[in-house]
Write a structure and sequence with these properties.
The chain is of the alpha/beta class. It is about 30% helix and about 25% strand. Helix 2 links the parallel strand 1 and strand 2 (about 60-65).
């Protein structure tokens, strides 16, 4: 049997390449995971406000209410010194406290070798800690390193 080779014109080759580039550009971009599991106490109102902030930013939130969060923090490598009022898990990372959604998205996009992020305490102006006058002081989001140390991940206010 004789092999038939059909020559391609330069125009057909370019059209095929352009079609492949267009198809790749239209393919859905891989988004970081958005399922967020939150652990909070039943009576915390600021935790609910933070959950609403995260939902508004597109995270799919599942809430677990517990009387005490120390065991959850310990299981996820959050030192007591970095504790806040709620703990969340997303994409293999922990978010402790009032971490802004933009910082969580950046964490998921960059995927550093770390435990996660924390905003220790409850700083005024952080998501869920908004003040009636809209004012808040500066605060930092810290990257929790695997050895328990931290470094500044983002500055706000």
């Amino acid at each position: 049997m004789r092999s038939m080779i059909v020559p391609l014109s330069r125009r057909a080759l370019l059209a095929g390449g352009a079609g492949a580039v267009t198809a790749a550009a239209c393919a859905p971009a891989r988004r970081p995971p958005t399922e967020l599991v939150v652990y909070k106490t039943p009576t915390c109102g600021c935790c609910t406000a933070w959950v609403n902030h995260m939902r508004g930013a597109g995270f799919d939130v599942r809430i677990n209410e517990l009387p005490d969060l120390r065991s959850i923090r310990g299981a996820h490598g959050v030192p007591d010194t970095l504790a806040s009022c709620h703990t969340a898990v997303v994409g293999g990372y922990v978010l402790e406290g009032h971490v802004p959604a933009g910082d969580a998205r950046r964490l998921l996009a960059e995927r550093p070798q770390a435990v996660g992020l924390t905003v220790p305490g409850m700083p005024p102006g952080a998501p869920g800690m908004e003040t009636p006058d809209g004012q808040g002081g500066p605060y930092e989001t810290l990257l929790i390193l695997r050895g328990g140390g931290t470094r500044v991940f983002a500055r706000h206010g």
